[in-house]
Automatic annotation (TrEMBL):
<keyword id="KW-0408">Iron</keyword>
<feature type="domain" description="Fe2OG dioxygenase">
    <location>
        <begin position="134"/>
        <end position="247"/>
    </location>
</feature>
<dbReference type="GO" id="GO:0016491">
    <property type="term" value="F:oxidoreductase activity"/>
</dbReference>
<comment type="similarity">
    <text>Belongs to the iron/ascorbate-dependent oxidoreductase family.</text>
</comment>
<dbReference type="InterPro" id="IPR018655">
    <property type="entry name" value="DUF2086"/>
</dbReference>
<keyword id="KW-0560">Oxidoreductase</keyword>
<dbReference type="InterPro" id="IPR005123">
    <property type="entry name" value="Oxoglu/Fe-dep_dioxygenase_dom"/>
</dbReference>
<dbReference type="GO" id="GO:0046872">
    <property type="term" value="F:metal ion binding"/>
</dbReference>
<dbReference type="Pfam" id="PF09859">
    <property type="entry name" value="Oxygenase-NA"/>
</dbReference>
<keyword id="KW-0479">Metal-binding</keyword>
<protein>
    <recommendedName>
        <fullName>Fe2OG dioxygenase domain-containing protein</fullName>
    </recommendedName>
</protein>
Amino acid sequence: MTMTARKSPQTSSIDLAAQLNTLDWPQITAELDAQGCAVLKNLLTPDHCRAIAGLYPDDTHFRSRIVMGRHGFGRGEYKYFSYPLPDLIAQLRPALYGHLQAVANRWNEAMGIDVGYPAAHTAFLKRCHDAGQTRPTPLLLQYEAGDYNCLHQDLYGEHVFPIQVAILLSEPGRDFTGGEFVLTEQRPRMQSRAEVVPLAQGDAVAFAVHHRPVQGTRGTYRVNMRHGVSRIRSGQRHTLGVIFHDAK
Ligand SMILES: O=C(O)CCC(=O)C(=O)O
Ligand SMILES: [Fe+2]
């Protein structure tokens, strides 16, 4: 399996890395710690968003297509990219990982999970691949009016990076209505809490995949997170999902 990047859609790695560096990472980290999610404003330009969403019909980019209704996942569909990933996604994935890896290590320490994450995404992917998790997980989702994504967790094997990123490629109010990104947090022996994350086109949300630590009065406890999308009321909505572990 080759990991060389494909050349479309075109983007400069310097631009993307520079764009990531302009984000307020101390603020993003603080929000991840406090809420289990954080918005990364204007991660992609509208041109990048259109270019990525425009890949959906071209099956040469993908390893599989999932019709959500067939699996009880909701309504709508998505496709997993194949390796080599399109250039922009191949750059985005390790760059985001680099900014999130310290948070992931801190979370695991706080939860007493004896797993650390190496500084480089390639090193973490090698761990996944050595354990048989070799299939790429970045995905493109497509929803039409009436579609929705049930609350779920993107776990694909033993190796899990505890934070993932979803990027809204469509413009709310213009391309679609409804279709809000939703997170729920299940607390031990308590009722669940929901959070709706407002996103504009090109914004990303970083959020907990499965568990995250919460600081309580009597120490740290673990909460169980799920994410999904409320019903699309009209139009079409595309999302790019960036998951850092690969799949079995
Ligand atoms: O469409 C969305 O906003 C959610 C996508 C999703 O479930 C994911 O990226 O894992
Ligand atoms: Fe998901």
